[in-house]
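re: that chain from earlier
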Amino acid sequence: MNFHRAVIKVGSALVSPESNGCSGKYLLSIAQFITACQQAGKEIILVSSGSVAAGRQSIHHSSPIPSIQTKQAMGAVGQMKMMANWQRFFDQACGQLLITHGDLKDRQHYINIKNTIRILLANHVLPIVNENDTVASDEIKVGDNDNLAAQVALVSEADCLFILSDVDGVFDSDPRYNPDAALIPEIAEITEDIYAMAGCTHNPIATGGMKTKIQAAEKAIEYGITTYIVNGSKSEVFEHLLKGENPGTVFLAQQNTIGPARKHWLKHTLKSNGEIFLDQGAVKALSRNGASLLSSGIIDCKGSFIAGDAIDLVDPNNNRVIAKGICQYSQPELQQIKGVQSEEIFNILGYRPSKVIVHRDDMVIL
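^ sequence. v structure.
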């Protein structure tokens, strides 16, 4: 176990294998693994799915596919049951963190989450994180707990991420249909071919699938976080992990290719609300020279965004997103000042909050 701090993500199929209430069927082995890691001096953060499934019995619903409001009510009841179910496996205290993408997007909230996790760990409390299903709308949902776990690994500065599900790892083809499918034990680089191997989930209570697990791994390894996808329904998996063996698929951590944590937060956490199309001079200045984006380099912009929103910077020659950044102006303002020199902005708008449209410190090159 060559790690100091790990995030362990447990999927709905393990928390609620019958899709109707909490179960301890698989959680005992997981809890024993967590305890063994802690006894070895490791710090653990748990990201647990399953609140909606846990509360399913308590909320009446006539449709096999409950409405969003019904699911939110199920999550409100189920979150209590899920936390109680986890707590019974530990002698130590557990702490609950319910977060949304809106919390991760807000830099101050992001720092608050970081500090809360740090203090919980310092006091030997097990942090248990889940998406706040009762309030999350499409605009502020992370959407799946695989990617949430990657975000938690980033914010907590973990060096290892374990994604536990009911699958053994990544296969070279779908093992449900191909009996000769082979498990891929190690992935050094995530390519389009790797994504092509990912099928959709067939679990009715799951929100992810192999694709979201690979997305999560890509976020994590880029920040130097080794990531495992393993089968959490098999107790022997944890025996292998405790021996330092790989029972599933490991994604090898890369050198941090982005730089400061703020830029990683910008690339992987903020959702873009629009696009700015650049002339070739601006494309070259940004991608080769590390420059800020000026109004003179803008051809057009699309989307509905305000100052402070994240936007994609696009090379129109190939329609490729070359960078992502925080814009200092709104879309209506940019439509008025696109293509003009910075000195002319005040004459056009009557104010100039910034000489640059996107500062290089608020930009990550893709």
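Confidence is low (pLDDT under 50) at residues 200-207.
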